[in-house]
Write a sequence for this structure.
C-alpha cells in the first residue's frame, strides 16, 4: 500500500514537471531532469523511479498522439501503481516457482503466495508475461497483469477492404478490384435540415 501511494505521489510530481516543460514525452530527457530529485524526495529505488518516469512520458505521448492537449498536469489514481515487465527498465514483478516477486519502494519482496483463475497456470507456463498494475482495493492487494500469446494464422484468406467517406458519396468501398458507392441523398437532406435549424 505504501509503494502504491508513494509511486502515485512521485508520478504526479513528475507529471507536473513534464507538463510545465512543454509535455516531455522523451523518457531519457525527463529522466535527466527529475531522476536524482525524485529518488531523494520520495525514497524510491532506481527501478521504481525509472518505471514512474516511463509511465508519465508514455501517458503524455499517448495524449500527444491523440491530439488531446490537457489544460493541467495529468493526475494518476491513488490506488494503483503500474508495474513494468522486461525491456530496458528491468522487471518490476515476476512469477517464480516459490511465488510472486514484486519490486516495492523498500526493495524486492520475494516468494509472495498468490492465487488466480484456474487457467493462470497455463498462462504462466506457455504465455509471455506483459505489463501489470499493482492495486490496493478494500485492504487487499491485486496484481492485474496481461499475457501475450501468438495466434495461429487464419485458414481463410484475409480480404482487405478500403472505405473512403465523403460528402457526395457517404462511403465508397473497394477491395482493389470492385467498388461499391453509397449515395447520400437522404443523409444529405437530413444534414442540410440540421444545418439550417442550427
Amino acid at each position: 500500500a505504501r509503494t502504491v501511494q508513494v509511486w502515485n505521489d512521485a508520478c504526479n510530481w513528475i507529471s507536473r514537471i513534464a507538463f510545465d516543460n512543454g509535455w516531455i514525452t522523451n523518457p531519457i530527457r525527463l529522466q535527466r531532469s527529475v531522476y536524482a530529485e525524485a529518488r531523494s524526495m520520495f525514497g524510491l529505488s532506481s527501478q521504481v523511479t525509472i518505471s514512474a518516469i516511463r509511465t508519465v512520458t508514455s501517458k503524455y505521448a499517448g495524449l500527444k498522439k491523440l491530439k488531446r492537449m490537457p489544460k493541467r498536469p495529468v493526475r494518476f489514481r491513488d490506488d494503483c501503481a503500474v508495474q513494468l515487465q522486461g525491456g530496458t527498465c528491468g522487471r518490476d514483478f515476476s512469477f517464480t516457482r516459490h511465488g510472486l516477486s514484486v519490486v516495492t519502494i523498500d526493495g524486492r519482496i520475494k516468494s509472495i503466495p498468490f492465487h488466480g483463475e484456474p487457467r493462470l497456470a497455463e498462462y504462466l507456463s506457455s504465455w509471455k508475461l506483459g505489463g501489470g498494475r499493482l492495486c490496493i482495493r478494500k485492504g487487499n492487494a491485486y496484481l492485474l497483469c496481461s499475457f501475450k500469446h501468438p495466434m495461429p494464422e487464419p485458414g481463410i484468406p484475409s480480404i482487405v477492404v478500403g472505405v473512403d467517406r465523403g460528402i457526395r458519396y457517404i462511403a465508397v468501398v473497394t477491395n482493389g478490384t470492385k467498388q461499391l458507392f453509397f449515395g447520400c441523398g437522404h443523409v444529405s437532406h437530413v444534414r442540410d435540415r440540421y444545418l439550417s435549424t442550427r
